[in-house]
Design a protein that fits this description.
With 177 residues, this protein is mainly α. It is built from 6 helices and 2 strands; from the N terminus they run ααααββαα. The longest helix has 34 residues.
Length: 177
């Protein structure tokens, strides 16, 4: 539920907004720090396979799907196709994935996991699970449920911001000096 500006005497709307802005900045900063910290932990743990966390996530998804196109993979993972293609390129170079022509449409490439991927995926999934458990140590279930709801709302807000493309004044025709 969204917090409403106070209506009681003694707190002006400007004071409310500036306090809310500082709190918001602090929360965003903490969220980014937690995200970066988790990313570093995952990256360090996947280094034994020569992978980053994002590459490991792509590999697990591909192995579980058995075969899919880069476009479908990007859609399923909520990433842009160009970024997914770069991950696929690196995973193919590392011997984890291969591209084959779709027998129904030879213009389309299908991504398939290799034997190396099939051997690595159980370890990768276990690593995701262990790091995730450690990351959430000491946080109560109620707090996790509330955090999940808040993060879902933040994700939706971020999606709207991305779609609106309103953050960059240059896109609005403002020239840089």
């Amino acid at each position: 539920m969204a917090e409403k500006p106070p209506t009681s005497l003694g707190v002006s709307l400007t004071e409310y907004m500036s306090v809310r802005g500082r709190e918001g900045e602090a929360v965003i900063s903490q969220l980014l720090r937690a995200s970066i910290g988790l990313q570093k932990a995952f990256d360090r743990c996947f280094a034994y396979e020569g992978l980053t966390a994002q590459e490991a996530a792509v590999l697990v998804h591909c192995a579980e799907a058995k075969e899919l196109s880069a476009g479908r993979l990007a859609e399923a993972m909520g990433r842009d196709k160009g970024k997914i293609t770069r991950f696929i390129d690196r995973l193919e170079a590392g011997g984890f994935l291969r591209r084959v022509s779709d027998p129904r449409d030879h213009r389309l490439l299908i991504i398939k996991p290799t034997r190396r991927a099939q051997r690595a995926v159980p370890r990768l999934k276990k690593t995701f699970e262990q790091v995730g458990e450690e990351f959430l140590t000491g946080i109560q279930s109620d707090d996790l449920n509330r955090l999940g709801s808040v993060l879902s709302a933040l994700y939706e807000n971020a999606g709207r911001l991305y779609q609106a493309k309103t953050l960059n004044p240059i896109q609005k025709g403002t020239k840089r000096k």
